[in-house]
Amino acid sequence: MAQTTIARLPAKRVVLGVGAAAAVLLLALVLALTLGGRKSRPPTGGTVPAQNVVGSIGVNVHLSYGDTTYSNFPAVMARLKALGVRHIRDGACAGCVQENARLRQLGQAGFRFDLIMGDPKNSTGTLQQNLASVRQIAPFVTSVEGPNEYDNQGDPQWLSKDLAYQRQLYRAVKGDPKLRHIQVIGPSLVNSASFAKLASIGTSLDAVNLHAYPPNGGPPAANVDEELRLAASEAPRKPVVTTETGFRTGGRPLPGNRPVNKRLEAAYMTSLVLEYYRAGIRRSYIYELLDERRDPQGTNPQEHFGLLNPNTRPKPAFTALRNLIKILSVGGPASPLTLQPPHVTATTLDGSPIHTITMQRGDGSQVLAAWETAPGRRPHPLELTVDQSASLSIYRPSIGRAVQRRIGPVTDTRINLGADPVLVVTGPGA
Question: Which domains does the chain have, with CATH numbers?
Fold first, then answer.
């Protein structure tokens, strides 16, 4: 079902920091809101390493936005480290001396990057100039992507230009010994109808690019199936990456797009990254790290997507996402076990739909994550069944990092499930 954008947010104004060239980085954030559709694709196998889920989480930043709170780079870097993400999305910018220095500093600290490689307007330099800047930090770059939402930039020739630019990008990266290890992601799109128009682009990308914002601030599962259907209409056998997704906590309501309160954002943000991983999306970049400017009147939707407030203090969603990452990271990477921990399954007693993932942490413990796909106003009873008598530790990342409840030893029990996911841990280090 073709569907155009319901609501477009104001385009971002970019002001480069000290030492940057006159080029500007235009990253227009537009919400392509879609509904319904195809069955999601859970990861193969019954249990996945918890670190794989952690590694699927990324966040957008704008290091060249010199007139926003991103200019406070020490605070930005400190918050990124505290959050625990490993992957960052920004835009390549050939003349942005300060941004490129900051990317190098972050790379040396262990972060890895997805970089937007400009557009047909050469807003951040020519493609070759941007590629030259990427070569300087190539060990830290895991992926690059085509033009950002160029189908909504008012160019009547956007299709031919998007295709030509992506093909040139792919050939240049794969033909360069210093860059050929880097994944090439396709261009991001706003309008649903644009995906099928790019159906011939599959040979010039390694992964399809989605900007999959849940419509109307609804639960993350609301539009995942349809977004995956759109991705398949562009390149049916390619992996999928969501380079923008998230919620906003302020600004005026728009048709098809409404803000959520900060507590609900915290609940939904943790289920979002779990939902997308379960659906088979390789990586999901939250939009964005921080609110760029103060909005005292609360009228500008663009200024409320951050996990951090404009003063860089965390919103509840930042804390919830940090808690989830910390809980799943216990023990580091998972290793083969000689003894399998008890296995837990979950069902709702009232028939409300849920999704689950079973993960293994590095200490050998098993984590069952369960969340509702269409949360209601009241919690729903969740029955937990264990294949052998075991003690259960119940975590709720949106509430805190510590165990919220200990149960057992039991073979079955009941808890309540609300809008936020629960993590049920069994085995060592629970």
Answer: 7-328 (3.20.20.80), 344-426 (2.60.40)
